[in-house]
Amino acid sequence: MTKKRELEETTTTTEETTTTTTTTTTNEDVDNNKVEEVKKKQKLEEPVVVAEEKKDDEKKVEEKEKVEEEKKDNENVQEEKKVDEKKDDEKKEEEEKKEEKPVATTSLFGFNSSASPFSFASSFSSGSPFSFNLNSTSTFTNAFGKPPVSTNGDSTSTTTTENNESNGSEKVEGSAQEDFSKTYTPIFAHVQQVEQKTGEEEENTLCSAKAKLYILSEQEYKERGVGILKLNQNLENKSRLIMIADGSKRSLLNVNIFSKMVLESPNEKSIKFVAFEDGKINSFFIRMGKADEIKSFLDKINQQIKHLKDKESEI
Q1: What residue segments make up the domains of the chain, in order of their start?
Q2: DSSP assignment, residue 202?
Q3: Which pLDDT tens digit goes with each residue over 198-241?
């Protein structure tokens, strides 16, 4: 029995040792595989890292070059500014020198700049158009092609020329003052005047005033115009209301007074009535500036209406 137990123990121990050895060997194999994988990854990552480092180095070099180029450009710009400033200074100095030197230019009338426009005897030899000579008796020398009178000659020659010039100017003035009314007739002398007929020639104006006319259109009074309102009566005792526009003189109103006409006065300065115009019945509204004018129109129109009613009753 004891031997069997010893054998069993020995077998168990051998099995344990074999299991431990197998486990150790498997662990070692796993570790080796991991190491190899890490090495492979490192080998793959090394060229990527190197490439990135190279790119960074190249970027740094490019930035340095850009900075240097900018510095050079700034230096060139500053040098150009300095050159331009020098040129401007030189131009200013030249202009100042030119201003200091007298320039011999001619004026509008051909005089020298050193002499005044109306120079004295010093400019006489140049033959300027308007020159004075203190030694001569004449005021101006001849400027339009005639030779100048000598200062050493007799005074009679100068006086004769002056007299001739004065006589010539008097003749010109006399000719300019001639009366042409006898020889020339006005352009519109033979135009016949045409009389403008307004249709009021045989009518008597009973009253008139300036007013503003409105007409009822689409249930609303709309302004037609401003002008002179007249109440006229003809030889047959017929009367009518007419209104002529200011400025254009066009007819704004032309209605007859009839026996059944009704006048209304909404206020002191307005009249409202209905009348026939172009074969249609229209409602009119008239506004005036003064109450007295409205009153006189109402009275005169009512008188005409009454007269027409009396005539109809007699018939």
Answers
A1: 203-314
A2: T
A3: 888 889 999 999 999 999 999 999 999 999 999 999 988 899 99
